[in-house]
Fold this protein.
Amino acid sequence: MESMAREPAGNTRAEGVYRDLRADILGGRMTPGQRLKFPELSERYSTSVGAAREALTRLTAEGLVKTKPHLGYTVTPLSHEDLADLTKARVEIESLVLRLSVFEGDVQWEARAVAAHHLLERTPLADPDAPDRPSDAWSEAHAAFHLALLDGCSNRRLLTTARTLREEAELYLRWSVTFGDEPDRDLPGEHKALLDAALSRNGELAAELLRDHIAHTAQLLISCAEDEPNQV
């Protein structure tokens, strides 16, 4: 009985480490390519090695952490080559999942998408403490909106793959100093057009808009970066 009583506390502790470490990675407090050592993680998050290992395993599955022999765990390193490969995969898979989502989503899916867009529209993009980068709140609302659009897809394998690719892409968005600040781009308009196409059940248009949206963002991140992002 005692072991059963302790298990929820352990699970809660591991969940807390996972959330905090994930937020630090996406918030730029852990830099791409940085090694994640158990003693340092245990001290930083006041936790056990076991809880830290569980958090790293989950983040590895999400693509935010990599593991290599003799190096251990590192924050996923960024590179233009990786971004190009990631973009190709996202363009194909996310557009497919969105098209299926539009065809299969129910009224509850529509409501979730509308609510997510409402929150995104009303969340300031700039971070007051780091005005050159998207705020944590906007990045979370942005990710939630795109995931809400995809969530009508009934194929869990495709949906999981699309979600994982989006998680990896978030690293690039968080480290971009130009995203959302392009004078010739109407980012809110792109999001509204995606929502409208989805709600009108025009799967082909929604997929086409999403492909352009993803490709445009990737081209911007590559072309506007002064140097290659960090690599291992």
Q: What stands out?
A: Residues 2-26 form the longest helix (25 residues). The two ends are 46 Å apart (CA to CA). The first strand starts at residue 35 and ends at 36. The beta strands are 35-36, 65-68, 72-75, 126-127, 130-134.
